[in-house]
Input
Amino acid sequence: MRKISLPLTKEIIKTLKPGEQVLLSGAFLTARDAAHKRLTDALKAGKKIPVSLEGETIYYTGPTPAGIDMVIGSCGPTTSARMDPFTPLLLSHGLLAMIGKGERSKETSLAIKRHGAVYFITIGGAGAYLSEKVKSAEIIAYKDLGPEAIYRLEVEDFPVIADIL
Output
């Protein structure tokens, strides 16, 4: 299994092959439906967003609260198709990678390819296992959204599979 350090670059993405298993280490953002809507609404209104998307990876998850002696609670992937209405705009603002589960729309798949980005899938139903790969977690935007806030997670050997490139 190939190990890749984050942040990704378009050069690294060009070397990936569909179906390739990868272990990601470094930092990425989390965001679900509500955060995606806020980000895209702000961008459409010409407002500054609270995070830079340039070269970023977003994991579609809403982590549960951390238990005792835990960095984060369960953090399994959510269905990626729910982010499809927002994805092309975020890609146009520098987003390079997304992690989730399930299929993407034809429009979103084409946008991912057009922007030289990548969509990774990860293991659905394995939120407790995936949370063990998280070394630190910090809310960086939209704290009022609770588990749907935008977090920055530092991960080590987070398992994904390259799907759309």
In short: The first helix runs from residue 10 to 15. The chain has a mean pLDDT of 97. The chain has one domain: 2-164.
